[in-house]
Specification:
Layout lengths: L12 E3 L1 H15 L3 H19 L5 E6 L3 H14 L4 E6 L8 H13 L5 E4 L2 H4 L7 E5 L11 H10 L6 E4 L21 E5 L2 E2 L7 H4 L2 E5 L13 E4 L20 E5 L6 H12 L5 E7 L3 H7 L4 E5 L12 H8 L4 E5 L7 H13 L4 E3 L2 H7 L12 E3 L3 H8 L6 H15 L2 E4 L5 E4 L3 E5 L11 H14 L4 H22 L11
Helix pairs in contact: 2-3, 3-4, 8-15, 11-12, 12-13, 15-16
This protein binds ligand NPW, adenosine-5'-diphosphate (ADP) and potassium ion (K).
Adenosine-5'-diphosphate binds next to helix 15 and helix 16.
Catalytic activity: (6R)-NADHX = (6S)-NADHX; (6R)-NADPHX = (6S)-NADPHX; (6S)-NADPHX + ADP = AMP + phosphate + NADPH + H(+); (6S)-NADHX + ADP = AMP + phosphate + NADH + H(+)
Subunit structure: Homotetramer.
EC number: 4.2.1.136, 5.1.99.6
Length: 506
């Protein structure tokens, strides 16, 4: 029983290069909306956005390749020409070999030019010295790019990156890989990206966030059914409550959250996690702790039920605590959070292994709990249980025995592992990536560096575990946990310039 129920809004589907092409082709061939029409819609919606956002533009420089990406730029040029905005168009590889729809759009553009406001250059060399212009449009290359940008294209990009005027990218900044966010030799730095038919996955990985500028989604008439093959989504605060909703159970029909956390020297992790979970309004939290650590929690966690296991001189979880802990966890419905601050003793690993094998609750495994898991040759996960794992990059690497240099590799590992093991994986970092068994993945788009302070992982784990106990699905719980922090961060930063303390996020 693996529950997933996040429903991304259509504007938040993230397309790969292959999927973009597939959807284009199916719409053209099966639905009968031709490529020319799609191009018209793309260029027109970009023109509307651009005119809304910039009122003072008078002369555009359009850098064009020979494919359909150039066609989008030509449609844009036509609509802006209608608004008295001049166009200087540079075809980097000449205009003899344009794609069919792009050629048609060049012919149309000439027909719309009543007052000689159009200039055409047949090569990059011809175009220099360039006329004055107050914005640049990037219609060089689109989403299909899969080799390093060549020749004059690279030269034009380098030049463009030194200009002061705003740069508008059609569909994707040229040189950015649509799937991975990798720079293909050189890439254009855009101020705005008008993303046609769907945002591209690479906008949120690798160098993507540094190159796209502001991203505007321009809808194309793609039937929703063709988007069903999309597995990757953007998670941001614009998602509303119907998209992030409870699974069946009423939110306030809350179960108990059992927390197995803390050991000598690491009781802070247990305190942060339980306080954070408590703040979400859950009815009861039971903190299971080695008896020697109990006095600290008596002082610090008055609202939390404490159930000590073992003897007064037990300061970390051991094999001998297994039965008692399982008995406590089995008392009521709810969820389990295991890991923050439990340490890495050999006996703790055995303890964790048995708890994971025997307990039947939805379970969040974090921090040292993940380390214990990484020490086992096989994960003791029963197939019908919901597990959430919340590793930071080091923990993910240890857990999967995989090294990754890029976000794209990290995404691929998250997708593989969550599907193979049937778990929901929240890979912390920038971006945060949620992977589900379906498999689906959700990428965040905000700066996570303010969260990179010891304690924020415990706060996040506490929130997510509390949502699990409240009856939300694992993926929804992760999404809510991340967005809860982001919302608080925005609020705190409005009040002060300082980086907030982890306790501020509770
Ligand atoms: N109907 C549709 O499908 C719709 C598509 N739409 C738009 O089309 C875009 C995709 O268009 P596309 O597929 O024509 O690709 P695009 O990048 O413009 O040109 C490819 C040309 O570039 C060249 N080239 C390749 N690699 C290179 C390199 N490394 N360095 C230098 N040159 C390189 C290559 O030349 P070749 O190597 O073959 O000589 C090839 O001829 C998409 O992003 C969206 O904007 C929208 O209008 C909606 C409807
Ligand atoms: N609300 C949030 N949104 C995105 N990422 C978050 C959020 N809260 C925490 N994180 C991620 O969790 C990381 C902290 O977790 P971790 O490294 O495990 O720290 P800890 O030492 O607290 O266990 C942050 O660097 C960030 O990547
Ligand atoms: K482009």
């Amino acid at each position: 029983m693996v529950n997933t129920n996040l429903e991304a809004p259509a504007s938040h589907y993230l397309l790969t290069s292959e999927l973009s092409q597939e959807i284009d082709q199916k719409t053209i061939q099966n639905i009968g909306i031709d490529g020319f029409t799609l191009m018209e819609v793309a260029g027109k919606s970009a023109s509307q956005l651009l005119l809304d956002q910039y009122s003072e533009l008078s002369n555009g420089l359009y850098l064009c390749g020979k494919g359909n990406n150039a066609g989008d730029a030509l449609v844009l040029a036509r609509y802006l020409l209608q608004n008295d905005i001049k166009a200087s168009i540079v075809f980097i590889s000449g205009s003899d070999d344009l794609s069919e729809d792009t050629r048609t759009n060049l012919q149309l553009l000439h027909k719309y030019d009543q007052h000689n406001r159009l200039k055409i250059y047949e090569s990059w060399n011809d175009a220099k010295p360039l006329d004055t212009f107050d914005f640049v449009v990037d219609g060089l290359l689109g989403t299909g790019l899969n080799s390093d940008v060549r020749g004059k294209y690279a030269e034009a990009i380098q030049w463009c990156n030194h200009q002061q005027t705003p740069v508008f990218a059609m569909d994707i900044p040229t040189g950015l890989h649509a799937d991975s966010g990798e720079i293909m030799g050189i890439a254009l730095q855009a101020d705005h990206t008008y993303s046609f038919g769907g945002r591209k996955q690479g906008f949120y990985l690798g160098d993507g966030p540094n190159l796209t500028g502001k991203i505007d989604y321009c809808e194309l008439p793609f039937p929703n059914k063709y988007k069903q093959d999309c597995h990757s989504f953007l998670l941001d605060e614009s998602w509303n409550s119907t998209e992030i909703s409870p699974t069946g159970k009423h939110k306030y029909d809350s179960g108990v959250l059992y927390v197995i956390a803390g050991s000598e020297g690491l009781t802070g992790a247990a305190i942060m996690a339980t306080k954070s979970a408590w703040a979400e309004g859950i009815g009861a939290i039971v903190l299971i702790c080695p008896r020697g650590t109990l006095p600290i929690y008596e002082q610090t966690l008055p609202s939390i039920i404490k159930k000590p296991v073992g003897d007064r001189d037990d300061f970390f979880f051991k094999k001998k605590h297994i039965q008692k802990s399982l008995q406590i966890i089995g008392e009521k419905e709810g969820a389990l959070l295991i890991g923050p601050g439990i340490g890495r003793d050999k006996s703790t690993i055995e303890f964790v292994q048995s708890i994971l094998e025997e307990n039947s609750k939805p379970t969040l495994i974090d921090a040292d709990g993940l380390w214990c898991l990484s020490q086992l040759t096989e994960w003791p996960k029963p197939h019908d249980r919901n597990w959430i794992l919340t590793p930071h990059p080091g923990e993910l690497s240890k857990l999967t025995a995989e090294n990754f240099d890029t976000d794209y590799q990290r995404l691929q590992i998250v997708q593989q592992i969550s599907q193979k093991e049937g778990v929901t994986l929240l890979s912390k970092g920038m971006p945060g990536i949620i992977g589900t068994p379906e498999p689906k993945s959700y990428l965040t788009n905000y700066d996570t560096t303010p969260f990179a302070r010891a304690g924020n992982g415990d706060v996040l784990a506490g929130k997510i575990a509390s949502y699990l106990a409240l009856g939300y699905s694992p993926d929804t719980s992760c999404a809510m946990g991340l967005l809860n922090g982001k919302q608080k961060l925005d609020h705190l930063l409005k009040q002060s310039q300082e980086v907030p303390e982890p306790t501020d996020f509770i």
